[in-house]
């Protein structure tokens, strides 16, 4: 059963409260984030939508950016960098005000609002791209985590305070981060959210590397336990993965049309999922969306390959003489009687017969039962 498909297409009542997408230098998760947001806007499943853009331009994250509905609010901080602008304000108060009220809270010189009308009551999605940039602007991991905790709890507290609040339905916090990241380590802890979904993206070249150099293709070709024992430590060595893409023999950039997605779902009874953690590895294609790994064109060459063991060297090759027998020689050899003196005769009678040694002396044997040491000069 696919885990990625419902994550991208699930309606608000099935939302996990926290969704984290983790990119790397070798592979970006922005294409998947773009599809998640496009499906959400297309189905009108979110009445209130907030995008805090810090690393990527909003037009690269939202499809049909010029035709967005009025319920979508985009706060663009990509041109507000501490130390590079004359006046820079801490964005935390603006973020909390935007989530609570859905109104314009900062002057035009700090951020550009493309949609700033108050949304009608309904569900809300809050998207941060990216929290690592937010942490760099604030300057401290602990302060950034505390701000995100407030954003996480704010929709529920607003619903409890006022029945006329624009936030009445479920909420979802979507965070885009990169690896390695100290902030991502804190955000994935159960203390931050007991129910969460983590999507870690990998380039397809990583699986081709494992199949070729480690002889461990992904399931179903190899066993899951064996594959994960090899995949996890290799994928965590981000330097080696980056070298596969950007090295001398690499492709030069991440794949935007086909992506390998490592999915970790930590569910709870309230979300309809089992307690514990589910881990799967699935594929994503720009044309097909979520799909099995076997459906990806970039991995077509690794399926069905069998490792043929090298045959042992033949000792009869490259000799100056022939050690093999022809058919006629084999037949002649089979007709030669073997020189056994007692061939065909039973040696013992019954189970209690006394064992004996039969020996035919040779002509050169000197057998003297009287003095066996007679031939010695003593």
From TrEMBL:
Q: What is its main location?
A: cytoplasm
> Where does the source fall among the domains of life?
Eukaryota
Example GO biological process:
tRNA wobble uridine modification
Q: GO molecular function terms here?
A: tRNA binding
Q: In which pathway does it act?
A: tRNA modification; 5-methoxycarbonylmethyl-2-thiouridine-tRNA biosynthesis
Acidic residues bias spans: 362-378
Q: Which UniProt keywords are present, listed alphabetically?
A: Cytoplasm, Nucleus, tRNA processing
Which intervals of the chain are annotated as region Disordered?
340-378
Assigned GO CC terms: cytosol; elongator holoenzyme complex; nucleus
Q: Where in the cell does this protein reside?
A: Cytoplasm; Nucleus
The family classification in the record reads: Belongs to the ELP5 family.
User: Which PANTHER family is this protein grouped with?
Assistant: ELONGATOR COMPLEX PROTEIN 5 (PTHR15641:SF1)
**Can you name this protein?**
Elongator complex protein 5
Per the UniProt record, the source organism is: Sphagnurus paluster
Task: State the organism's lineage.
Answer: Eukaryota, Fungi, Dikarya, Basidiomycota, Agaricomycotina
